[in-house]
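User: I'll paste a sequence; please echo it back and then give the predicted structure.

Assistant: Echoing your sequence first, then the prediction.
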Amino acid sequence: MFFSSPFQLLELKGGGRFGKVYKAKLENEEVVAVKAFPLSEKQSFEAEKVVYSLPRLSHENILKFIGVSSKGAGVEKEFYLITEFHSTGELGLVEA
């Protein structure tokens, strides 16, 4: 579940109470959605990670879960939830 490959944040697509959602590109050129949570919202990140990790969570209206990652240290640390990207869809991931 931990995603260790690098990704590049390309464009801010939206934001809300718990974090920001970016269009991003993986090392293999795949375009994905990345939801970035600041350290202050680690609990929200953990809750969403649990939901997306449910073994039978698969539906055409739910973004495909790719993995999680983090960067930084101390108060600058951010946590990332990585899902498939839908260019015409709503990127507001499930808010816990």
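The chain has a mean pLDDT of 85. Residues 42-52 form the longest helix (11 residues).
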